[in-house]
Amino acid sequence: MMGYFGTYSSFVVGNYNEVSENADSAAKEIEALLSAVESAIGATVDDSDVARFNAAGAGEKLEITRITYEVMSLAAEMYEKTDGYYNPAVGNLVDLWGFTPRFDDPDYAPSEPYDRPAGEPLPDEKYIEAFSSDGITDFGAVELIKDNGRYYAVKPNATVTVEKTYSMNIDLGGIGKGYAADECAKILSKYGLKKSYVSIGTSSLYLAESEKTAKGAPNKNMYEVKLTHPRESKEYLSVYACNVAASTSGDYEKFFIYDGVRYSHLINPFDGRPTDSGFVTGSVFGESAAEGDALTTALAVMEKQAAISYASESGYKYALLYEENGGYALYTNMDESEYALHDGRIEEIREYSID
Amino acid sequence: MIKETEYVRNGKPFRPADLAVYGVIAVVIAALFLAFAVFKSEGDATEIIAESNGERVFVYSFADGSLILNENFSGLVAKDVKDGVYTVVIYTDKEKTAFNTVIIERDGTTYVSDADCSRRKDCTHMKAIDESGGTIVCVPHGLKIYATGDYSPTLG
After folding, report:
1. Chain A partners within 8 Å of B122 (Cβ)
2. What is the ipTM, given to two decimal places?
3. By the CB < 8 Å criterion, does A225 face chain B?
4. Do B133 and A226 touch (CB under 8 A)?
5. Does the beta carbon of B148 lie under 8 angstroms from any beta carbon of chain A?
6. d(CA B7, nearest CA chain A) in Å
7. Among A10, A104, A220, whose Cβ lies nearest the Cβ of B119?
8. Strand order of the sheet with strand A7-13?
């Protein structure tokens, strides 16, 4: 178990005794990888590339690491592919709503003009409008340069002024965990660890094969992946899978409730507000955890029907849970044998029955 | 007795009815083998371990409900038991300024009920650990509590 990204990651090998030497080498390599990824893009690392990018002035060119270049390139690709619903350039909005790590600091003290006293969690409209303006949220305007083995990012020129002047602020935390899971998969393969899985903060996984076949699984060597119930202390769904990447996003990770309304850290980049689509949690299973991370983030902020249509065409298996009619509804394109729903109160809506 | 022995000696090694019985037994053995070899089910958690900055603080056993404290933490851990429910207060610094209160229910369900780690106290909102596994982490205090023996990955 290793502590990175403000959470914990684990690497589990099935037949450890048979492959202990390889497993030890893989564990060391995985730990070095996670450390390097966190140093490059970690939100809480003072001199990470992301921290330097956010602190840089508009139009400034910064040298970045290969890891940051690769993660930003993937992020740009997913920004384009999801028509901007996945947008890492909502950093100012995430901070405005109080979901960045500085608010978790025991010594927290207000430092921005928009910081509110305790008991007043909702931000001023003028900031919501300013921080969701096209200029500082257009991640497509970030220029990424690879030149003679060195890597650079150029921050867009756009700024907005509300008491202070602000430029683009990015957060690569979500896709970064998926990137790390995908890179860990390469390490597992390199060391021939076929009976293993790696979990990055329980939101991004890469599953090879299970030493034991999960009870109820349709095929040999499948894991039972237990999906956490968003509101209760138990699993609501088991998904049987192996040799696949998995990612999840949920409105329960960081949130506050004010006047009976839940405000989560999943910010819609188009209106600058926490998603109100009814999305509670969503998981996808497919080729890449990094893509999956960006995909679940995008699905979380899309309107429900748009999200289901988009997920259906994504090539990923999905399980999306929405609040509906005072209860919950699970939308999925998985075959009945690939999952088990543990909560009888949740309505199942399979893809072929969606209008 | 002699007659019986002769009967056995003189009889055919396998009569048709015997073959049918052996066949059924062979099928049952093969089915049981496949059931165990191909569909062995996942194991459940056997213990819950708490670590403070990498050092083990306590081990709770699901088998007998015992809680074993690491003596190195004797001045930094306060344990109370009432009606089979453990309340363990763990101080994660020597000055005793940082604490997490861990509750272990009678069935082993374990969660953090209180802490002074941050404004949101994320660790107190994390899913309880039980025999199906789980992990609770308090990053500011370097405290992690996790189940062992659980091979099922969790998502979310």
Report:
1. 104
2. 0.82
3. yes
4. yes
5. no
6. 49
7. A104
8. A2-4, A7-13, A196-200, A204-207, A244-250, A279-286, A317-324, A327-332, A346-350
Residue of B nearest to A206 (CA): B153
Find the CB nearest A205 among B117, B140, B155. B155
- Three-state SS for B145? strand
Q: What are phi and psi of A35, to 5 degrees?
A: -65, -45
Pairwise pLDDT comparison (B20 vs A330), residue with the higher score: A330
- The answer to whether the beta carbons of residues A181 and A37 sit under 8 Å apart is no
The first and second tokens of residue A101, run together, are 């790590």
CB atoms inside a 10 Å sphere around CB A336: 11
Parallel/antiparallel/unpaired status of strands A7-13 and A2-4: antiparallel
CB-count burial class (<10 Å; 0-12, 13-18, 19+) for A230: middle
Q: Does A188 touch chain B (CB under 8 A)?
A: no
What would the pLDDT profile of A86-103 be if each residue is shown by its tens digit? 999 999 999 999 999 888
Contact list in B for residue A233 (CB cut-off 8 A) is 111, 127-128
CB contact under 8 A, B153 and A283: no
CB pairs under 8 A between A and B: 102
Distance from CA of A206 to the nearest CA of B (A): 10
Helix crossing, A66-81 with A20-41: angle to 10°? 70
The domain limits of chain A are: 2-33+174-353, 49-171
Tell me the chain A residues in contact with residue B40 when contact means C-beta distances shorter than 8 Å.
Answer: 212-213
CATH class label, A2-33+174-353: alpha beta
Pick A223's closest partner by Cβ from B120, B135, B152.
Answer: B152
**What is the CATH number that goes with domain A49-171?**
3.10.520.10
Q: Where are the alpha helices (DSSP H) in B70-146?
A: 122-125
Phi, psi of A319 (to 5 degrees): -140, 105
Q: How confident is the model at residue B40 (pLDDT cuts 50, 70, 90)?
A: very low
Q: Which residue of B has its CA nearest to A103?
A: B119
Structure tokens at A177: 């965990």
Beta bridge partners of A331: A320, A349
* Rounded Cα distance, A175 and A142, in Å: 17
Distance between CA atoms of residues B94 and B153, nearest Å: 35
pLDDT category, A65, cuts 50, 70, 90?
very high
Please write the tens of the pLDDT for every residue from B89-126: 999 888 888 999 999 999 999 999 999 998 888 899 98
Mean pLDDT computed over every residue of chain A? 91
Residue range A66-79: mean pLDDT, rounded: 98
8 Å CB contact of A226 and B140: no
- pLDDT beyond 90 at A33: yes
